[in-house]
Amino acid sequence: MPSKDITDNLPNPGARLSASASHRRDGPARQGWGGLKQFVPSSVCLQCEGCCRFQLAESPWRPKVGEQEAQDGVDQAGYLKTIAQRGHYNCVFFNKKDSTCGIYGHRPFECALYPFVLSKSKERLELYVHLACPYIQEHHLNQDLKIHTDYLKVFFAQTQVKDFLKHNSRLLHDYTPYRQELEFLFTIEV
Ligand code: SF4
């Protein structure tokens, strides 16, 4: 049975966010995926120049957005759009002045999950951790990662999360071409 804090932090995955709802402080979608515990402390993320910026406009590392999530800023293939910025590309929601996310409380599931990455190939859905994240490079052999992995196993075992993934198949894409950047954690039953 999930521990109380995980159950309390369940998101509202069926809620479609609109541009206005994403900035509201109340309403059914107020929590989004913000309740998903983060492994990397925000103080570290804010100092890092890795996330939310991409080398290519069509980078495969741009977050994908599920069919039931807000579609603002999403292209036809389901990726967050980017804006060219001095030789690289920023997510449309990235605030370059202070390196924050303009929709942090309601950012897409893939953003909330990162540096953990879902990958589906040959009908197997697996969770990996992205070794390109500098914090993961420092901590991936630590006990803390094992504890967080156990938390994620419980998180993905919840019926509400499984249902969300079933209805947001865009999120189940294949990252195995980038396998050298990923470390396998566990298989998810959907
Ligand atoms: S939505 Fe927010 S967290 Fe996700 S890539 Fe854009 S700026 Fe980063």
Low-confidence stretches: 1-31
Q: Please give the alpha-carbon distance between the first and last residues.
A: 17 Å
- Give the helix/strand class: alpha+beta
Q: How confident overall, as mean pLDDT?
A: 83
| String of helices and strands | HHEEEEEHEEHHHE
Rg calc: 16 Å
Beta-strand content:
15-25%
Identify every distinct bound molecule in the structure, by name, code or SMILES. Answer: iron/sulfur cluster
- The helicity comes to 10-25%
Biggest sheet details: 3 strands, antiparallel
Give me the count of strands.
8
Largest sheet: spatial strand order = 1-3-2
Determine the number of helices (DSSP H or I, runs of at least 4 residues): 6
Query: How does the overall form come out from the CA principal axes?
Result: globular
What does this structure look like?
There is one protein chain. This protein is α+β, with helices and mostly antiparallel strands. Helices cover 23% and strands 18% of the residues. The protein has a domain at 4-47 and 103-188. The longest helix is centred in the C-terminal third of the chain and has 15 residues, at 143-157. It is globular. The site of iron/sulfur cluster has 12 residues, from loops.
How would you summarize this macromolecular structure in one to three sentences?
This protein is an alpha+beta fold and 190 residues long. The chain has helices at 4-8, 42-45, 109-113, 134-139, 143-157, 159-166; strands at residues 53-54, 82-85, 88-91, 94-95, 100-101, 116-121, 124-130, 182-188. Iron/sulfur cluster binds at residues 51-52, 63, 80, 91, 93-94, 101, 103, 107-108, 111.
